[in-house]
Amino acid sequence: METLRLYDFLPSGNGYKIRLLLTQISMPFEIIEVNILKGESRTSDFLSINPNGKIPVLEIAGGKYLAESNAILMYLSEGTEFLPYDHFLKAQVLQWLFFEQYSHEPFIATSRYWISILGKTDEYKEKLQEKHQRGYEALQVMENHLTKNNFFVGESYTIADIALFAYTHVADEGGFDLSKFKAIKAWIERIKAQPRFIGIGNVEEEWEKKS
User: Fold this and answer.
1) Consecutive 10-residue runs of the chain (211 residues): their mean pLDDT?
2) How many Å from the N-terminal Cα to the C-terminal Cα in the chain?
3) How far apart are the C-alpha atoms of 99 and 104, rounded to whole Å?
4) Is the distance from CB of 48 to CB of 31 less than 8 angstroms?
5) Beta strand residue intervals within 68-193, DSSP E
6) Which helix (H) or strand (E) holds 64?
7) Model pTM?
């Protein structure tokens, strides 16, 4: 079995999505660390594999590269239990992946980046107010769905859950209070109980040792 290469900034939730899925499908992979705080995603070498200058990037057989975390999730999950075969259910997975990137990640992930990774809470104080408002709106959409469902699509754990879990379970690091979102908190525990689950810190701790 060929080992995949994952170009990743280890504190990133977008990279964590891929590490979690690869682990849960028992696919061997090698991590190539790209420290975005040091400009390593803007070098000519990295831009040659992803002109958008962002992580994660998955290197696959034949020298092919695939960027955008949710596109990578789709690629890796084809033919597995993590992506439904049913046409409508698959479309619902895409629906939640688009929701995560448009209505969720820009507010919850960005807040975490500013506060916990850059440590610039005061500098972004005014902008954080808007991010938090929109982030809580996204969390409420999730809460409403999870009040009636154990997972996001077809009552089965899919890449839709992985995509949304990545930044939701560390939303507190972006200043969000999850205490009133009981359905989300129960869902988080269901995700953690899945076979071959790994936490974001499993790899982050190693990254911190090397920084």
Assistant:
1) 86 97 96 96 97 97 94 97 97 98 97 95 96 98 98 96 98 97 98 96 51 48
2) 31
3) 6
4) no
5) none
6) strand 64-67
7) 0.93
**CB-CB neighbours of 196 under 10 Å:** 11
At position 123, the amino acid (one-letter code) is: E
What is the 3-state secondary structure of 35-52? CHHHCCCCCHHHHCCCCC
In angstroms and rounded to an integer, the radius of gyration of the C-alpha atoms of the chain is 17
- Residue 68: both structure tokens together: 């955008």
Q: Are 57 and 50 in contact (CB under 8 A)?
A: yes
Read off the DSSP letter of residue 69.
H
Domains and CATH numbers, the chain: 4-80+200-208 (3.40.30.10), 87-193 (1.20.1050.10)
H or E element in which residue 132 lies:
helix 125-146
